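Quick start: read one record
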Amino acid sequence: MVARQSKFTTIVNLVLGVIWLILGISNLFVSSGTLLVGILYLVVAVAYLLIFVYNWRNGFFRIENGQIIKCEFLAMSKRIKLDEINWAKCIGSYYTLKSPTKKMTIELASVHKDDIPGFEKLLKDIVMSVPPYKKD
């Protein structure tokens, strides 16, 4: 199962990438600004566009092979095995899952609206399957 990132966040990354791209190109070819500033704008544009493509292709969360994977750009994806989760809590739309060595927080507001029902059902099943523990 793949839970995609919300459309708003994805589109914001695309729009910011295009804006920085326009600024970079205009600074390089139209304006008499320094070459370094134009190149810096283009680097920022490429970064935003890469973030957009990465999130579009990989999704926000994936559940496969008995683990939840939180996809993060330019960082190691966070992974937590479902059978290792020994503590889980739900506060509003935030789910916190802990294993003996890892902690993962999931905000449902960041998940695409079409993917929320299935993903939320799975998270509620995880929370209900974990034995109750003392509050921290």
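The chain has a mean pLDDT of 83.
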